[in-house]
Design a protein that fits this description.
With about 325 residues, this protein is α+β, with helices and mostly antiparallel strands. Helix content is about 50%, strand content about 10%. A hairpin with a 2-residue loop joins strand 3 and strand 4.
Length: about 325
């Protein structure tokens, strides 16, 4: 049985309480223990959580669940889907989603930025609040990640996630939620992924849209376990390897018990290539070392297979349009 930390449920429950919702009654309705939830101890069934949250939002008439001062009226997310249905590509869909939420309310700002070989979806809550909105930020990031994957029928694998706040009590869930490095105390909340995803076509029929909207958006929060795509499996092999730079497609295919041709075909169907995944690994590793160590650029360059620091500097600038030194932050104490 898949479970979710009660600290996550508690954060949603407290936000709903500020809007007068009878949260305890809703929890009992779905066999969730209010005492355990509000003590933030233990875990609960994730499907019960999803059903509880979806019902709570509908009966509140608020898809923000109380996290925004102005309600996100029931049906807002459905209309956002219809707004992006004819977008053509994920790039246009993400831009339209931001425009849509700008029109319907003052709480949520969603923006798309393209820099070098990376794309960045930034989530910002514009209204001040006394609530602890860390779980709401994570909910929005997960919804946009899973929604994007659904729109293009391809698992969108983020390279890293930035959070503008300190670590929440459910920090250990991030590996399962995002499947990539997560950095707290950043200037903004953002999903960072390969820019190539933006060119994928939005390809959903009206029938698929109707079926999806019958459960969205809350259902997206209960499906946060990492996508079991072949690309994600390749990523895990690269991350676990002692020397990822020496791995070629044949070695990885052997590890996955498939032929190189099958691996190549499946990766193509997921909108990527083996070399692209290796390049993404190297880019992500570079960012990680810059953010979490005090290594010199020369040492990082050698770690990533560059002959000298200047070659690494040029590659990093090509990847991100930012100098590697700008990613620096104090190493962990």
């Amino acid at each position: 049985m898949s479970t979710v930390p009660n600290s996550i449920i508690a954060a949603h429950a407290r936000a709903a309480q500020t809007r007068g919702a009878n949260v305890e009654a809703f929890l009992h309705r779905f066999d969730l223990d209010p005492d355990a939830v509000f003590r933030e101890q233990g875990r609960s069934d994730i499907q019960a959580f999803g059903q509880w949250l979806g019902t709570l939002w509908r009966e509140m008439g608020d898809e923000s669940g109380g996290f925004c001062r102005q309600k996100m009226k029931t049906g807002t997310f459905a209309m956002a889907n219809y707004a992006v249905a004819s977008a053509g590509t994920l790039r246009k869909a993400l831009i339209r989603s931001g425009q849509f939420y700008d029109i319907v309310g003052d709480c949520l700002n969603v923006s798309l930025h393209e820099e070098g070989q990376e794309a960045r979806v930034v989530i910002q809550l514009r209204e001040p609040s006394d609530l602890d909105r860390r779980v709401f930020y994570d909910s929005l990031l997960i919804i946009w990640l899973r929604w994007s994957s659904w729109l293009v029928d391809t698992p969108l694998l983020p390279e890293r996630v930035h959070l503008s706040f300190d670590w929440p009590p459910y920090r250990e869930e991030y590996e399962a939620m995002y499947g990539c490095p997560v950095y707290a105390r950043q200037p903004e909340c953002a999903l960072i992924f390969d820019r190539a995803y933006l060119d994928l076509p939005v390809n959903r029929t009206p029938e698929q849209m109707a079926e999806f909207l019958a459960q969205a958006p809350s259902v997206l929060l209960t499906q946060y376990r990492r996508d079991r795509s072949l690309a994600q499996q390749v990523r895990r092999i690269l991350n676990a390897s002692q020397d990822p730079l020496t791995l070629d497609q044949s070695h990885v295919a052997d590890r996955l018990a498939v032929s190189p041709a099958t691996l190549r075909r499946h990766l193509h169907s997921e909108g990527t290539r083996f070399q692209a995944l290796k390049d993404q690994w190297r880019r992500g590793r570079a960012v990680h070392l810059l953010k979490t160590t005090d290594w010199t650029l020369q040492r990082i360059a050698l770690e990533l297979g560059f002959s000298e620091a200047s070659a690494f500097h040029r590659a990093f600038k090509r990847w991100t349009r930012i100098n590697p030194g700008d990613y620096r932050q104090p190493p962990p104490s």
